[in-house]
């Protein structure tokens, strides 16, 4: 399950967080496989953050994962940003 951490909610505009939550919810309701869900969510977060990975408003904060894990997933899912 992908969650948005409480700390992130304070740092990101409410619109960005609610948009990410709605996106994940819509995919879950369609019963998308987990790998595909994660791939689409990473792409969506990179789109929201304009390709920014690190920093206060980067994708790592929203995703709640380590940088090495994100780079592994980008390579694994063949995501280019």
Characterization of this structure:
There is one protein chain. By secondary structure, this protein is an all-alpha fold. Helices cover 64% and strands 0% of the residues. It contains five helices and no strands. The protein has helices at 6-11, 14-29, 34-48, 59-63, 67-76. Helix 2 (14-29) runs antiparallel to helix 3 (34-48). The longest helix has 16 residues, at 14-29. The mean pLDDT is 81.
How would you concisely characterize the structure shown here?
The protein contains 5 helices and no strands. The chain has helices spanning 6-11, 14-29, 34-48, 59-63, 67-76. The radius of gyration is 12 Å and the shape is globular.
Kindly estimate the percentage of residues that lie in beta strands according to DSSP. Answer: under 5%
- Number of strand elements: 0
> What's the overall geometry?
globular
SSE arrangement, N to C: HHHHH
Strand and helix map with partners:
Layout: H1 6-11, H2 14-29, H3 34-48, H4 59-63, H5 67-76
Helix pairs in contact: 2-3
Describe this protein with a few key phrases:
single chain; 81 residues; mainly alpha; 0% strand; globular
């Amino acid at each position: 399950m992908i969650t948005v951490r409480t700390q992130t909610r304070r740092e990101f505009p409410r619109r960005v967080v609610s948009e990410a939550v709605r996106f994940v919810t819509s995919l879950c309701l369609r019963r998308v496989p987990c790998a595909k869900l994660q791939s689409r969510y990473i792409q969506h977060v990179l789109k929201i953050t304009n390709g920014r990975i690190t920093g206060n408003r980067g994708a790592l904060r929203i995703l709640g994962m380590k940088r090495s894990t994100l780079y592994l997933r980008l390579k694994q899912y063949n995501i280019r940003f």
